[in-house]
Every structure is written in C-alpha cells, then in structure tokens.
C-alpha cells in the first residue's frame, strides 16, 4: 500500500536592490500562462542542481513573490496549502509526477489563503516558494539531498533570471535556491545582527517547537511569553516603569521610550509572521519567575481587542454630575508618536473628579481613546479640550505622568 503524499518546501530567493523597494509593492502574481513560463526554467534548475531523480516528484509553485515573513509562519501554512492543492489535482487518483503552477486570473489569485500580501517595502529579499510532492518513502531521500546541496550549489540559471526580469519586471541582484531551514537560519542571523535575538527565539519556537513555553525578557523590562504560535505580553505603564526604576522625569522618559519602542517592534515583528500577540493588563502573579504560572495569569488578563487600550486609573469618582470640563493630554514622543493619553475630568471650581492614563496597545487604539473621551464629554455636557504639547508631561521622583497644565488656550 502506497504511503500518503508528503511535501518538502523550498524557495527561489530573489534579492533586490534596497533602494528600489522602500516605497514599492512587490509585483503582482503572474497570470496562469506566464506562471508556466516561469516554472519551466525553475524546474530545469532543480534537475541540474539536485539530479534527474527530482523528476520523480511533483512540483507545485505559486508564481508570485513573497516576503520571508509570509512563508515562515506557525504551522507552515504555505506548505500545507501547496500539498492540498497538489493532492486535489489528482482527483482521488494515484500519484502522478507533474508540474503544477498557480497564477492569477483577472487579477485574482486562485487561493486567497496564500495570496501574496504585496506589502510596501517588502524585501529586499523576496522568495518564490514551491514544494516537491511524492509519497513519503519516495520523498525522504530527495528531502535529504535538498538539504545537503540546494544552498551550496543553488545558483539560478540565466534562463530563470531572464524569465523573472521579463515576466515580473524586477531586476534581481542575486538569485539562489534554499530550503525553508536555510531561510530560518538566514533570518536568525539577520535578527541577531539587528539585536533582535529574542524575537527570533519566539518565532523559531512557533515554527519548530509549538508545544514549548518560551519566556523572553528584555533588558528594557519587556516580557513576552510564547506557546503554540501565540504570544502574551504584559503592558507596562510609564508610572510603573518609573516607580520600578526610581527614575526622575528625564530618565523615565528615555527609559520608558526604550520599553515602548521594543514593545511595538516585537509585536509588529511577531504579527508579521502570522503570530497572535495578546497585550495583557498587569496583575499580581504576572511577574512570576515560573513561565507556566506567568503564562496562566497572562492568559486570564488579556486586554480585550474591542477596547484596544490599557487604562491606568489614578482616581475616578463615580459622582460625575458636577463635571464641566474634560481635558485629554496626548503624551507623545518625537520618534514614537503618542504613547498615552491622560484624561482629566474637573468640576467648575477645578475640583478633580477623574484622572486616568489610557495607553493605546494597538494603532487603532489612538482614535478609539480620543473618540471615547470626546463622547464622554458630550454625554456629560462638559467642555471638551484636547492638548497636544508634543512631549511627555511628567513630574516627581519617581516620575509620574501628569496632564498638560501649562496651557493658555491650547498646546
């Protein structure tokens, strides 16, 4: 009895000049006819590099360029999708080696789940993925050979270079073949060189050790706990950071800025690989040294996506009937933009009713916070005032956020 079909993935890496990609999208996927024109020289390259035995396996390839983050995702969905497509092409019949390409039709990609995202600024290293497909026992020796020779001997031929230039309109500075493991090793080197080694630790675990619990702690105080392709990360407020470090305002602004920069970069990096990232409201037990305990606490205190901000309450009097003015201060950094919004609700005599700090945990949280407080002012019949001093307003030692009070009109 023949074994089930299996797939082993690889890519043709397409390195572009960084100056040509910063504001551009990768080209659209090729049409069905042009997809076959590109696949033919790629198949010839593989026979030359690996050997004629590769013709005993099927080859399935989407004729499109992908950023590496689109390919290295938990569960490797690209590989599963290509295997399913090849399996479906057999219509229940026996395995037949064939060249199967995926191209667009009327501008639409046939499989939306693996359609190229074409995000602006992708690259400079892009890739055309493909998978070799065959029954498991037949594919195993071929997989081992790919791992041994593809990166070492995998330069693309002139026909492939010419096809890419003519069909996709790109001008590659280098074309070479690599396995997914080679891509992983390359990304690890790149991230570690950029001092994002912990980011790679979380991504690698999601790819190859999904059942593990990875506890990453950064020097800036960020903590990220990952398992099963998801990551939980406690959200730290400015006041909490300053109190922990006993920092005066200037030091707290710089230190908290570094924390926020890492928080945003790590969240964006993980999400670009298709990983779910859950900001967590800080709570007792979340700082536990035991990752399993900290993870359990974090999973129980996820900040709801329906309210994409973390609220730190300084004081909140429920008796708000006397409120006459609502002032919101945008606490911002020149490089990071808004990091928090301080909402101050006062009575006519200046009495403090409410003082809270709202932290947008996602970009959409910025407008959500502003909209929330503007609607609150309207509901109270209070005057609405928005202050944008262009800086973080803090005082004390340790420092704490405060509303912008130096206004004569509007900041």
UniProtKB/TrEMBL annotation:
Organism: Spiribacter curvatus
Name listed for the protein in its UniProt record: Uncharacterized protein
Top-rank lineage group of the source organism: Bacteria
């Amino acid at each position: 009895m023949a074994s089930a079909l299996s797939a082993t993935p690889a890519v043709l890496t397409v390195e572009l000049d960084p100056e040509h990609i910063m504001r551009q999208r990768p080209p659209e996927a090729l049409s069905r006819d042009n997809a076959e024109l590109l696949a033919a020289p790629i198949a010839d390259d593989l026979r030359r590099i690996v050997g004629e035995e590769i013709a005993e396996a099927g080859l399935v390839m989407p004729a499109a360029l992908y950023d590496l983050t689109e390919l290295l995702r938990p569960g490797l969905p690209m590989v599963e999708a290509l295997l399913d497509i090849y399996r479906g092409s057999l219509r229940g019949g026996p395995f037949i080696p064939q060249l199967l390409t995926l191209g667009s039709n009327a501008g639409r990609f046939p499989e939306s789940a693996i359609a190229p995202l074409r995000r602006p600024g992708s690259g400079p290293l892009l890739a055309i993925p493909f998978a070799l497909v065959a029954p498991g026992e037949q594919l195993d020796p071929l997989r081992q050979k790919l791992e041994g020779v593809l990166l070492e001997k995998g330069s693309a031929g002139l026909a492939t270079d010419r096809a890419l230039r003519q069909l996709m309109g790109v001008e590659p500075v280098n074309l070479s073949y690599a396995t997914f493991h080679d891509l992983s090793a390359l990304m690890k080197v790149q991230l570690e060189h950029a001092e994002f080694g912990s980011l790679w630790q979380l991504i690698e675990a999601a790819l190859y050790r999904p059942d593990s619990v990875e506890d990453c702690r950064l020097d800036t105080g960020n903590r990220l706990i990952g398992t099963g392709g998801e990551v939980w990360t406690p959200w730290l407020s400015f006041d909490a950071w300053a109190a922990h470090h006993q920092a005066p305002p200037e030091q707290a602004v710089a230190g908290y800025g570094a924390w926020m920069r890492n928080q945003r970069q790590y969240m964006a990096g993980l999400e670009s690989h298709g990983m779910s990232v859950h900001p967590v409201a800080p709570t007792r037990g979340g700082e536990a040294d035991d990752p399993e305990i900290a993870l359990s606490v974090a999973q129980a205190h996820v900040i709801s996506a329906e309210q994409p901000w973390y609220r730190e309450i300084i004081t909140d009097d429920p008796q708000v009937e006397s409120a006459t003015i609502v002032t919101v201060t945008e606490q911002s950094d020149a490089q990071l933009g808004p990091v928090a919004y301080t909402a101050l609700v006062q009575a006519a005599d200046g009495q403090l009713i409410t003082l809270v700090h709202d932290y947008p945990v996602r970009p959409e949280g910025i407008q959500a916070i502003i909209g929330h407080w503007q609607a609150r002012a309207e509901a109270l019949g209070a005057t609405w005032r928005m202050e944008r001093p262009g800086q973080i307003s803090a005082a004390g030692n340790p420092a704490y956020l405060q509303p912008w009070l130096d206004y004569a009109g509007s900041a």
